[in-house]
Amino acid sequence: MSLANTARAMPTLVRVGVMGAVAYRAELFVWMLSTTMPFVMLAMYSAVAREGQLAGFGGDDFVIWSIATFVVRQFTGSWASWQINEEVRSGTLSMRLLRPISPIVNYAVENLAAMPLRMIIAVPLSVGLFIALGTDLLPHDLGGWLAFFAAWFGAWLLTFTVHVIMGALSFWLEQSMKVMNVWFAGYLVFSGYLIPVSLFPAGFQQSTRWLPFFSQIGLPVELLTKAEARADAGRLLAVQWGWIVLAMLIAAALWRRGVRRYGAVGG
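The structure assignment produced for this chain is given below.
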């Protein structure tokens, strides 16, 4: 694989990825429905907030959190681990390996190509609700928005790379998705997806923000909605991108060794 080959193939890969997303739009819509847990949790938090603020969160704060979390989740999701696992087991990965483009690039483009369809639902919903509730919590300067978008892209990149790691484990483990399920359980608890990290006890909050799970969703959500997080954006982004570099090194090592093993056993 070369950068030149990748660059030449990119328009075709994007076009094929978008066509695939359109072809499987029903499945994509079902997946989007499965990511509405922040709104489910909102019902519970709103009931609690009627009795008074909870860790500084009022009713409108929980609504803003649920919208921001839902939107960030739409654009940081990945399913590469399931793709890799299935293709290793079925042997269809061999076809990808014959192409001049790395399969990992293919998986990334296919995941990213679904984003326009997600935008059709997520963007109008979020814009309408933000306008209705006000935009006081959103960044008001270019630096704040740049920090948010850097964290947003980093969250997707970290999530995708983790999926590659979990998928690559299928070269050795028949049930590698069970490892992914353990990771996902940690993600649900510590990322800020189901519970705003700000609701955790003070000391536990700080520890949670050092975990990779928080970098996957909680960081962009907080940089979008919390001014105090934006004031510490540099440190938070450094932690996130540190995890990204580490995850990429692990993914590259596992993928290289896994592909050699796959070829050696006649995959």
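Interim note for the steering committee: The chain has one domain: 3-264. The chain has a mean pLDDT of 80.
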